[in-house]
Every structure is written in structure tokens, then in C-alpha cells.
Write a structure and sequence with these properties.
α1 packs parallel to α10 and α6 crosses α10. The chain is of the alpha/beta class and about 290 residues long. Helices cover about 45% and strands about 15% of the residues. The strands form three sheets. Strands 1-11-8-7-5-6 form a six-stranded parallel beta sheet, with helices on both faces. The protein has two domains: about 100 residues, Rossmann fold (3-Layer(aba) Sandwich), CATH 3.40.50; about 120 residues, NAD(P)-binding Rossmann-like Domain (Rossmann fold, 3-Layer(aba) Sandwich). The longest helix is centred in the C-terminal third of the chain and has 25 residues. The mean pLDDT is about 95. It is globular. It contains ten helices and eleven strands.
């Protein structure tokens, strides 16, 4: 068996094409494009690259993006004040606070200042809580993108045994909730898990986000499994790797994401979807 590749680049491109019509409808109804405000704090190189890519995506589909750059050593109140200004700006449909934040900036406090209906990252406690209550509104971008990747395979998820590796607030936990919502029987593995190999061997759907290159040996993968590798690690030779030993896993899985070109493009596509959803919902509320 050789697994079929789940092409995140192609699926993300299709999503961007599909969004253009909805954005045109919004522009016709309001006289303006959907708009998001992007906040970056400090000078983290990776964050700056991600922000450039996200803003380029917005420009491609017709979403306006405003960039706010703040110094790492700014007072906490300055960030909160900016977020409140954007909350109150009726021309801003979404707010994206780029992570990671510098030391000394409490990310949970900052996220809670963002209005839940403008939280295009899907990180606000309200949005995570609505997902847990099976009433998702704005969903965390990476898990949302993963679910669309899995959906593209055409494999039904009801009753499948799913394993999520990683329990972060922004990826692992909402990922487990998404799979649970889809009807899977879900297990979460984390740094204290002692029987990881056994869990991987039993997983019909494997989603890994540990951030540890090669953690999942290819011969652990259950034959016929769907394998989603969220991690991207750059090695000393400049090549990018994931959690899963790709070549060996591909000989056992039925579907697998490449690294890169799998989950990454879908995370950004899901952000665009959230931005359009936020704009459409605000327009609907104004017309109600």
C-alpha cells in the first residue's frame, strides 16, 4: 500500500477561489471589502513571515488587512487599548493577534480583550466553549483546516478511532473537539502518555502536533490509517520535517499529508474563511 497524498495547497486554492464570490457579495451589500486588523508584537522573524503570507492571502481574495506593529517592550495597557479601539471600529470585521507574544505579555489576557465575534483565529474562550458545546462559530484555524483535509478524502469519520498527539489550547484540544463532533472516538496523547506506540497502532485517524521531528515511527502507523502531520521542523540541512517518519508511514497509511504542503496552507485558508464568516455575521446582525 502507498498512501495517497492530501494536497493542502490545492484544497486551499479551491477555498480561496470559492471565497471570492462571497466577498464580492459582501462588497456589493456594504460598499466595502471585509477587513481584518493584524497585530504583531515584537520582531520575531517567523511571525513576520507568517503575517506577510496571511496578508498576501487576504489581498488575493479581496480582504483588506491593516497591520499594527508594536514593540516588544510596550506597556501591557497599550496592546489592550489598541484591541479595544479595533473592537469598537465598525469597519473592522476581524482581529488577528499574531502568536507567539513576547515574554511579559499574557496571551490569555490579550485574547480575552478581543471581541469574540471578531476573533478570526478562533482562540477566544467563548469560541472554544461554543465548539465544546457542539455549536461552533469561529473555529481554531488549524483544526478547522485539518477537518477539511480529512473531508477531502471522502472517508466517513463516524465511529473511527482517532488519536490526537499534542494537547495545546490552540491545536490539540480543539482538534480533539472537532473529531469528537465528527463522531470519532477520540484519544489525546501528551507528554505524560506512556503507551504512545500502542495508541498510534490502534488509530484509524492520526493527527500529530507534538513539534518533535520523527516522534512517530512509520511502522507504528495502522495499515489504512489517515495520517495528518501538523508539525513543521526545519533541520540543520534546511529541509522541513514533521512528527511522522513520512516515507515509512506512506507505505502503510491510506491517506497522508506532506510536510510542507499539507496542513500549513489550510490553516491560512481557514483564517480567510473565518474572516468572511465574521464579516457576514456582523452584516446579518446589523440588518436584523
Amino acid at each position: 500500500m502507498t498512501a495517497q497524498l492530501i494536497d493542502g495547497k490545492r484544497i486551499a486554492k479551491d477555498i480561496r477561489v470559492g471565497l471570492k464570490g462571497r466577498i464580492a457579495d459582501f462588497r456589493e451589500a456594504t460598499g466595502r471589502a471585509p477587513k481584518i486588523a493584524v497585530i504583531i508584537v515584537g520582531e520575531d522573524t517567523a511571525s513576520q513571515i507568517y503575517v506577510r503570507l496571511k496578508r498576501a492571502d487576504c489581498a488575493e481574495v479581496g480582504i483588506d488587512s491593516l497591520l499594527h506593529e508594536l514593540p516588544a517592550a510596550m506597556p501591557r495597557g497599550e496592546l489592550h487599548s489598541l484591541i479595544q479601539q479595533l473592537n469598537n471600529d465598525e469597519t473592522v470585521d476581524g482581529i488577528l493577534l499574531q502568536n507567539p507574544l513576547p515574554r511579559g505579555v499574557n496571551p490569555i489576557e490579550a485574547l480575552e480583550v478581543i471581541r469574540a465575534d471578531k476573533d478570526v483565529d478562533g482562540f477566544h474562550p467563548y469560541n472554544l466553549g461554543m465548539l465544546a458545546l457542539r455549536r461552533p462559530v469561529l473555529r481554531c484555524c488549524t483544526p478547522k483546516g485539518v477537518m477539511q483535509l480529512i473531508d477531502s478524502t471522502g472517508v466517513p469519520l463516524l465511529g473511527k478511532r482517532a488519536l490526537v498527539i499534542g494537547a495545546s489550547n490552540h491545536v490539540g484540544r480543539p482538534m480533539a473537539l472537532e473529531l469528537l463532533l465528527a463522531g470519532c472516538t477520540v484519544t489525546i496523547a501528551h507528554r505524560f502518555t506512556s503507551n504512545l506506540q500502542e495508541l498510534v497502532q490502534g488509530a484509524e485517524v492520526l493527527v500529530s502536533a507534538s513539534g518533535k521531528r520523527g516522534l512517530i515511527k512509520g511502522d507504528w502507523v495502522r495499515p489504512g490509517a489517515i495520517v495528518i502531520d501538523i508539525t513543521i521542523v526545519r533541520a540543520h540541512d534546511g529541509r522541513l520535517y514533521g512528527d511522522v517518519e513520512f516515507d515509512a508511514a506512506r507505505m502503510r497509511a491510506s491517506w497522508i499529508t506532506p510536510v510542507p504542503g499539507g496542513v500549513g496552507p489550510m490553516t491560512r485558508a481557514a483564517l480567510l474563511q473565518n474572516a468572511v464568516i465574521a464579516a457576514e455575521r456582523r452584516l446579518a446582525c446589523q440588518g436584523a
